[in-house]
Amino acid sequence: MNRSICVRASSRVCSTNRTGSPSAPAIAEARVEYEISEVGRSLAPFFAHLTEWAATNLSKVEQARHDYDTRPAR
């Protein structure tokens, strides 16, 4: 999925705040800034838990990928 679509979708569900400013004549695109909203910040504990899970299980995930990628063709 396009990163721009993902970021706009997060604005739509209130997890980020999007602020646009008019583009300068020399700049082809308008400048857009994003910040995490209060609702988005409420997800921090979940992301912290997910990060901890990933750190704990990364080697298992990598091994499973390797096993899958190197298995004999069927």
TrEMBL record:
Annotated transmembrane regions: none
Organism encoding this protein: Micromonospora polyrhachis
Name of the protein described by the UniProt record: DNA-binding HxlR family transcriptional regulator
Keywords, alphabetical: DNA-binding
Origin: domain of life: Bacteria
Molecular functions (GO terms): DNA binding
Domain HTH hxlR-type span(s) in chain numbering: 30-60
Keyword S-adenosyl-L-methionine listed: no
Organism classification: Bacteria, Bacillati, Actinomycetota, Actinomycetes, Micromonosporales
